[in-house]
């Protein structure tokens, strides 16, 4: 790998407070000794605004408070996740990057960069598309909302994917399902070209922020007043209806009704109507006192909570379950193609089918003492596979 490369990260949104993949990779590239410059907008997506402190805003201009440069531009167009800004190409050209990393292709933001004929710069696109995002946003299943999304995709998203296939040097797919999803956006004549350019990758975690320490586990469980007989489940995610947390809440309540002690920590509640609705749903349960609902938390707080837990649960493929794995936490994920590279059944967690979720949890709780003893080994294995510094080196 060439050292000290000039790396431009081009992404429509960049929120260090949330810590999505673009933030983690900027940090990882910087730690590897590269000159990193992030080019983004001042926008905060509407779906995230109510999860952040109300005073959170970003101003146009350049800052260097994190060790790498961030240039923010004011948008002249914004719709949902899509955002467009004037002056992006000029800023990127002035930086003269060796490598351009594009994240969030469908947000339209990187289009001016894609259209420019870079001669000596490698352009890479990272793909997060998977069967969850396709079902949710792409109009695959009918209905007014889906049809509207499909129309927007045809008008805005598909053209930029076609442009990218023609222009970029390399695609990296976060999940095994991403290439097949992207083929839906492309005409058949571009399929072979795209498949030649795409390679597998993964999401990951910052191994300096998420790791295993037995002292943290003992201290946090004592603080939370968890006994050895308490099995503690955790989910940390942005709370949305799409994630169907009601299903697992029902399972937790049922297991407690059988005389077992299963506590459930859910972090990521906002001040939106659905968050309140889900809190009320929990309050209606017979064993409501076994649940703990928390807002968005810092990585420092999440590290401690992951240590206190015995099992993690996520209903979709997102970055926080990798962070939990960094602490050696075994996790439960849906048995879908987009997580086949993550879970080794009964080794670092469990896969569930929607109609078998109760059986999966019952099976997991039986094995919990063995996994408690193996936390350090699981954390070390997760670091080898999913640390963002490893992923960043692979990209370059």
Explained architecture:
- The chain is globular.
- It folds into two domains: 6-206 and 389-395, 3-Layer(aba) Sandwich (Rossmann fold); 214-386, Glycogen Phosphorylase B (Rossmann fold, 3-Layer(aba) Sandwich), CATH 3.40.50.2000.
- It is an alpha/beta fold.
- The model is unreliable at 136-142 (pLDDT under 50).
- The chain has helices spanning 21-31, 46-49, 88-95, 111-115, 131-137, 144-167, 178-183, 191-197, 214-223, 245-257, 273-283, 299-308, 319-326, 357-366, 368-373, 375-386, 388-395; strands spanning 6-11, 35-41, 61-63, 69-73, 75-79, 82-85, 99-103, 122-127, 170-173, 198-200, 231-236, 262-269, 291-295, 311-313, 331-334, 349-352.
- It has an eight-stranded mixed beta sheet with strand order 3-4-2-1-7-8-9-10, with helices on both faces. Strands 13-12-11-14-15-16 form a six-stranded parallel beta sheet, sandwiched between helices. The protein has a two-stranded antiparallel sheet with strand order 5-6.
């Amino acid at each position: 790998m060439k050292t000290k490369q000039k790396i431009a990260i081009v992404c429509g949104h960049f929120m260090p407070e949330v810590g999505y993949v673009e933030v983690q990779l900027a940090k990882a590239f910087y730690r590897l000794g590269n000159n990193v410059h992030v080019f983004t907008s001042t926008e905060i997506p509407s779906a995230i605004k109510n999860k952040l402190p109300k005073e959170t805003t970003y101003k146009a201009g350049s800052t260097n408070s994190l060790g790498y440069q961030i240039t923010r531009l004011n948008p002249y167009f914004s719709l949902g996740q899509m955002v467009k800004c004037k002056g992006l190409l000029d800023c990127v050209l002035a930086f003269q990057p060796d490598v351009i990393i594009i994240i969030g292709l469908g947000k339209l933001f990187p289009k001016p960069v894609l259209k420019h004929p870079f001669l000596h710069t490698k352009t890479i696109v990272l793909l997060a598309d998977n069967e969850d995002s396709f079902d949710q946003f792409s109009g695959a299943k009918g209905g007014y909302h889906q049809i509207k999304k499909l129309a927007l995709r045809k008008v805005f998203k598909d053209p930029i994917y076609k442009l990218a296939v023609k222009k970029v040097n390399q695609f990296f797919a976060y999940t095994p399902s991403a290439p097949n999803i992207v083929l839906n956006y492309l005409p058949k004549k571009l399929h072979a070209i795209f498949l030649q350019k795409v390679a597998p990758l993964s999401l990951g975690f910052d191994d300096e922020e998420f790791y295993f320490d037995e002292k943290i586990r003992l201290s946090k469980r004592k603080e939370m007043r968890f006994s050895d007989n308490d099995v503690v489940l955790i989910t940390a995610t942005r709370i949305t209806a799409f994630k169907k947390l009601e299903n697992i809440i029902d399972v937790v309540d049922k297991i407690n009704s059988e005389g077992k002690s299963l506590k459930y920590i859910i972090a990521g509640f906002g001040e939106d109507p659905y968050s309140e609705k889900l809190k009320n749903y929990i309050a209606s349960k017979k064993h409501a006192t076994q649940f703990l609902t928390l807002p968005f938390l810092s990585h420092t707080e999440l590290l401690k909570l992951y240590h206190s837990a015995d099992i993690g649960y996520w209903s979709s493929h997102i970055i926080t379950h990798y962070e939990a794995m960094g602490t050696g936490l075994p996790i439960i994920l849906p048995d879908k193609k987009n997580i086949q590279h993550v879970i080794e059944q009964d080794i670092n967690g469990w896969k569930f089918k929607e109609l078998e979720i109760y059986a999966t949890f019952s099976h997991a709780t039986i094995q919990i003492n063995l996994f408690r003893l193996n936390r350090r080994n699981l954390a070390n294995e997760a670091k080898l596979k999913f640390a963002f510094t490893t992923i960043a080196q692979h990209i370059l």
